[in-house]
Amino acid sequence: MSGTPDIQRLIGDVVRFGTIASVDLAAARCTVAVGELETAAVPWIAGRAGDARLWSPPSVGEQVLLLCPEGDIAAGVALCGIYSDANPAPASVAGLMLLRFGDGAILSYDADGHALVARLVPDATAHIVAPGGLTIDGPVTVNGTVTATEDVKTAGVSLKNHVHDKVQAGGAMSGTPVAA
What domain of life (predicted)? Predict the structure, then answer.
């Protein structure tokens, strides 16, 4: 029984709650405050770090679990993602997967409602690069202006280069556009 206090102390040193004190983005390291103690720079668990890699650095003040193999804080790793009063859960809906960004933008999928939403903040932009093409199957609604740098085609008829049949002089209406 004489070794019990040492085992309890060691177990207490292996896993600790803390908060992110600083973040070094270039090194992908952070420091963690655990009470009065602050660690040296330690890595955070990224979720994916192989062929698929996820970049979502922790925020200063975010609550974490500091995992310290053999109780060695210098070998610690920050496990992020613990909700707290300072950083509460962004939703409380079953079936909803939601990613909320610091500026308020969201990306969500509601499996119960079958709805994918990308909601950006005012003045934000979206850019899709698809050198092989982009296909949308289904009705499309655009609220606003559509701008094309080259041409727009529908059913083989070019908006930019189409011609009309049945053209008459004067005030008569021409025929529908036809492929050039």
Answer: Bacteria
Q: Smallest Cα–Cα separation from 177: which of 158, 168, 152?
A: 158
Q: Which residues contact 175 (CB under 8 A, 6 or more apart)?
A: 164, 165, 166, 167
Concatenated DSSP letters for 33-85? EETTEE---EEB--S-BSSSB------TT-EEEEE-GGG-GGG-EEEEEE--S
Low-confidence ranges of the chain (pLDDT < 70): 1-5, 7-12, 180
Q: CA 162 to CA 157: how far, in whole Å?
A: 6
Distance CA 30, CA 54 (A): 16
Predicted pLDDT at 29? 98
Residue closest to 90 by CA, chosen among 78, 80, 76, 102: 102
CA dist., res. 86 & res. 60, Å (int)? 11
Rounded CA-CA distance 128/27 in Å is 29
Strands 63-67 and 37-38: unpaired
CA nearest neighbour of 31 among 177, 23, 129: 23
Q: Measured in Å, how far apart are the chain's first and last C-alpha atoms?
A: 93
Q: Are 68 and 76 in contact (CB under 8 A)?
A: yes
Q: What are phi and psi of 151, to 5 degrees?
A: -160, 165
